[in-house]
Design brief:
Strand content of chain A: over 45%
Largest interface: A-B, 23 and 19 residues
Radius of gyration of chain A: 14 Å
Number of helices of chain B: 0
Largest sheet of chain A: 6 strands, mixed
Distance between the termini of chain B: 36 Å
Shape of chain B: globular
Number of strands of chain B: 10
Helix content of chain A: under 10%
Oligomer: heterodimer
Order of helices and strands of chain B: EEEEEEEEEE
Structural class of chain B: mainly beta
Radius of gyration of chain B: 13 Å
Strand content of chain B: over 45%
Number of strands of chain A: 11
Distance between the termini of chain A: 40 Å
Structural class of chain A: mainly beta
Shape of chain A: globular
Chain lengths: 113, 115
């Protein structure tokens, strides 16, 4: 069964702290992994993609992937109130599947000033 | 990232009318189009997948005769909500996909309100 799970939150962190968002997936054929941010009333926007085990850093964002544990996370350093949004984890199962992307339900992050 | 437009961004209509939503992929060829629906404070729900020039494949529970999808070109897909009812009020988002990318990008969405 193709599932992507996330804690729905809300996850509240103080401004300047590190926010840690977690995602697990069930299908081992998953090939690539994505984090999207969605502000209220807006459509999702891509933050980061990660394909290999380990860490990938982009500015204040770090994605971490562990395929053995079927786990992907997103760390946001120096969290800002503008980071308050819902964060969606997405898994691409590869081109052999009719619907490549499976999205998690999202985690609501609230950064408190 | 990809440039995707949707029109209209917001529409209010009376119950029983039909509403057409356009999605354009402006900088790449969208061989596949995904249409999503999102109710307030809920997660994205895939409605249907269409390949250019083919009939759309609908997810379970989505009425194909109510949500008409046309994907006649590599840059344009339309979703028509026929005989709209208040329960169809939602945020509709398109997501084009092409062979040149494995990343899924989203249109800005269309907020539909049916009175």
């Amino acid at each position: 069964q193709k599932e992507v799970e996330q804690n729905s939150g809300p996850l509240s962190v103080p401004e300047g702290a590190i926010a840690s968002l977690n995602c697990t997936y069930s299908d081992r054929v998953s090939q690539s992994f994505f984090w999207y941010r969605q502000y209220s009333g807006k459509s999702p926007e891509l933050i980061m993609s990660i394909y290999s085990n380990g860490d990938k850093e982009d500015g204040r964002f770090t994605a971490q992937l562990n395929k053995a544990s079927q786990y992907v996370s997103l760390l946001i350093r120096d969290s800002q109130p503008s980071d308050s949004a819902t964060y969606l984890c997405a898994v691409n199962l590869g081109r052999n599947y009719g619907q490549n992307f499976v999205f998690g339900p999202g985690t609501r992050l609230s950064v408190l000033p | 990232g990809a440039v995707v437009s949707q029109h209209p961004s917001r529409v209010i209509c009376k119950s029983g009318t039909s509403v057409k939503i356009e999605c354009r992929s402006l900088d790449f060829q969208a061989t596949t189009m995904f249409w999503y629906r999102q109710f307030p404070k809920k997660s994205l729900m895939l409605m249907a997948t269409s390949n250019e020039g083919s009939k759309a494949t609908y997810e379970q529970g989505v009425e194909k005769d109510k949500f008409l999808i046309n994907h006649a070109s590599l840059t344009l897909s339309t979703l028509t909500v026929t005989s709209a009812h208040p329960e169809d009020s939602s945020f509709y988002i398109c997501s084009p996909s092409g062979m040149s990318t494995d990343t899924q990008y989203f249109g800005p969405g269309t907020r539909l309100t049916v009175l």
